[in-house]
Amino acid sequence: DPERGIDQLDRRLFANCQSTEDARVHADLRLFLQDFRGVVFGLTQALQHKWNPEVAFELAEAELVSDNVATGLERYGVRFEAFPKLEWYKSQEKKYAGQHLNDEFLFIWGEQGIGDEIMFAMFLEAMVPRVKNLVIALDNRLIPAFQVKYPQWTFVDRHNLPSDLPKFDYVCPLGDLMVLFLTDLLEKGHVFEQPVIAPDTARHNKISQLVAKSERPRVAVSWRGGGANANGKIRSMLLEDLMSGLPAASDVEVISLQYDENYEKEIMMNGDRRVAFSGLNNRYDLEGVFALISCCDAVITVDNAVAHFAAALGVPVAVLIPAAQTQFRWKQSAIRQLLFPSARLFVQGKPGDWVAPVEDAWRYALEIPAANG
Fold it and tell me: What is the C-alpha to C-alpha distance for residues 212 and 123, in angstroms, rounded to an integer?
């Protein structure tokens, strides 16, 4: 029983957190055991020994998943100290604090990855009654979908800001919308308008004509995300591991939405004829990807941008989640229900073991079209 052994080892050697190193090991072991309150204790003790902004950001996320939402949000601003590159826009304008603005101009700038941008942009709904003059800098691939949803505001490319931007009275990083409004929305039992975004009508019509009508279930898949670092490897798997959960006799159309380099080679090397290419540029043609997802019965994916796309489009999505990560957006049930109501989680019982969650995810995905008739 490895878990029991790890628990006993931790309690004997590290649980008192007498040094920074002991506290760090205690937090990591409690994370391995999915004991988030233990993670919070260990990280808190580590910070008392020595300040470290990256540890403080880990603590913020651990507090969020441990239901200490208000405390976690208070700490969430440390992300810019922990990861200075995230704060790509700096200015002398006043920081927006959630108030109603009349004639003043507010500039909101997107941050982090494209999946995070979609998640944080969900909170733009709270800005509708508050701010009239709003300019929002997003990844250019997301602008068409959000411009249709909010035609009253101006959207610009965050990676290529135009030179004629108006003078702003207030600024706000996109992630701060979650900090400002999440607690109140949860307390009120708020439900975001669904779907959060819709595919372009013309692209949807064209793609729906191209993908032949079929009695077979159509499931889009993605199996890797989070980059090449340790966190990315923990949340990713091989294509053959994902496909191993689909019974060989199942008559299902599987479409790849994987978007990183060399995924085409991986599909061909896997040799599974059930996996088809999307026919799109999955990384850059997001209007096409959104349209294709909306033509699918379900999506199965690890925690990456595809999971956020499917949830924002309101398509049933089975999200495969590793055990030994915090993942507050998925593992804190109230936050998940607010942001991703069409998502269902399939979490590893033990770190690194994808077998059971993958089998359960396929079973769930194949039941959806049957349930819909």
Answer: 36
